[in-house]
TrEMBL record:
<dbReference type="Pfam" id="PF01041">
    <property type="entry name" value="DegT_DnrJ_EryC1"/>
</dbReference>
<dbReference type="InterPro" id="IPR000653">
    <property type="entry name" value="DegT/StrS_aminotransferase"/>
</dbReference>
<dbReference type="InterPro" id="IPR015424">
    <property type="entry name" value="PyrdxlP-dep_Trfase"/>
</dbReference>
<dbReference type="InterPro" id="IPR015421">
    <property type="entry name" value="PyrdxlP-dep_Trfase_major"/>
</dbReference>
<dbReference type="GO" id="GO:0000271">
    <property type="term" value="P:polysaccharide biosynthetic process"/>
</dbReference>
<dbReference type="GO" id="GO:0008483">
    <property type="term" value="F:transaminase activity"/>
</dbReference>
<protein>
    <recommendedName>
        <fullName>Pyridoxal phosphate-dependent transferase</fullName>
    </recommendedName>
</protein>
<dbReference type="GO" id="GO:0030170">
    <property type="term" value="F:pyridoxal phosphate binding"/>
</dbReference>
Amino acid sequence: MALNGTANLPLPGTVLPARPRLAKIRGRCQRQPCGLKVQAYTQNGNGNGAALADPTKFNPVLTKDFCAPWTVPESGIADALGLMASGDLFRYNRNDANSAASRAEVALSEYTGHKYCLAVNSGASAIFLSLVSAGVKPGDKVFSNALTFGAVPSAIHHAGASVEFVESTNAYVLDTEHLEKKCQECPDVRFLLISHMRGKLADMDEVARICDKYNVTLLEDCAHSLGVFWDGKHSGHHGVACCISTQAYKMLNSGEGGFMLTNDPVIAAKAIVGAGGYEKLYKKHIATPPDEVFESIGKLKIPNYSMRMSNLHAAVLIPQIAVVGDRVALCNRRYDRVTARFEVAAQRVGASMEVPAQHPKVGPCNDSLQFNLIGYSWEQCQAYLANVKARGVPVSVFGAHDNARNYRTWEFLGDLPVMAQTDHIIRFAVDVRLPPQFDNEDFDLMADCLAAGFLSIGEPEQLSKQEAPAAALA
């Protein structure tokens, strides 16, 4: 399969022999025969194309920059320049409510279908405000995924609460069976902040059922799920509030920024005041509850956390919100392309891996790729990552010792529990971005690099327990 460490990928038109292929059935991986025809490879623009005469000498390497986020449309650039020329950067420094921040809030609420929207300076700020506005107080406990980004438990910590972890599944979503068990074991926990990690949604109908049964208030971290729908409705409608990030690697790019969305007028009013809508500045919002709601919440008892979004950030977001649907469609086409090619090539080189499917009710926005290494040792996993990185594809596993998605790195929370199921998953869950500025041929080459990396690690060792060294997870 290899010559001098290079990948032997199939020639165009080759029919692969029937051989074991991993298929995910009822949450477990089983082997079943499969015969697949390889599609023609396209020549890559940077000279690393796969259509070579001798496939045994094909050594895929990708030389493009993965730190290439969504760009700002020309109209957003022009509006931002106009704001800088006029100095109109502060949303409340005007006599009306028609600021760029207000217009961004209206545009996003219309897209997601929420009544109220608040623009803030980061996704973490949005989560914090949603927590305190929903009633989380210092000393409270909040259920949350053991697999998420460190900003989520940080927001809970910021609110003065502590985290009660819930296990995650090998599809990177909250484990609903463990959630119900935790609700039974911890009846004092009254809040769940569910994180839709990498845009993957758990069975949200089941999550809502459990929360209703045990009187748990549900909030949703939708930082990664803008453009993701559940049963035809945008994500974020099962909880009392949801939060979106516009940090550079998200579907909307303002460098930093975020939004809180809700249909609850009291939560909306409290969040607007808490973000910095002091005195009667709430009148300078549009996607907001009636004035009487603000006058009924005891707004003088709400601290001013000064988390407002500037007009400059909002201006670059408004034209991006208008094209979110187009971006989602493009992401999904590219994801389908890269995963189809990757799965065929990985099968050809004898890889043991799975790309977990999402829940059938999910309408996805696939702007990144995750897959699980099956049966390999920790050492094989590290060798695979090193090989693929050397090919120019910056892959990682969620369980790496320096990965902010590894719950063991959240030492600011104090003593951390052992989440055995999540530990097992994150050690072998590979994560890679699908940069929006790449071309189709770049995604083809990315798939080839991911597949070729398996040639460096040999057959899976089929360990009875896939254990990583303790130091690697510390």
